Amino acid sequence: MLTLEDLRDINVQQGKLLDRYYNVRHVADAGKVEGNDQTVAQHHNGLCVIMIHPSHPICSKTVQNVDFKISVNCDRSEIVLSGKKKRGAQFVNPNSKLCNVTCTDGSSYILYCGVRGKLLEVNDNLKSSPQLIAQRCDSDGYIAIIQPKKEEEKTVLKDLLTEEDFIRHSQIRASNKHEFDDIIESD
Questions:
Q1: Most buried one in 80, 159, 163, 182, CB count within 10 A?
Q2: Rounded to whole angstroms, how far apart are CA atoms 144 and 124?
């Protein structure tokens, strides 16, 4: 379990890499699953890079598989784009499933898109090297790239958490967990 100081250190390191060219926001508890934290980094050109947050439980585990086939009829990795308008892209919403991640300890996680737009690319390297998602989550281990609609580019991140809000949310989540643990121990 990461401490709040660890979380701040991670965020500072991540910020050095991303802040220069990206507007970084966070999705806390994606899919209403506690700790399923993700990062959305929007480049100045409007494209959004979807990643897991370094505090995500996946980062402390060995990843066995990243599967972009989210249902019988939908495989996110089978995107074939054509033309300037990116015909063939899959349109996704913030709560659309992006992939399933399975770890060697048997745990599995569903990761979500985080923003609305056209899914342009998934990181195919995660299929052959699934551990990238945990070891290099803020660079080579990115999950996908999404292009918001032109008219939504400026507002796509408005409902996501800033760095300060994410740290505050993490502190509240941690204090609530400690209170819950204290109640269980007292019983």
A1: 163
A2: 9
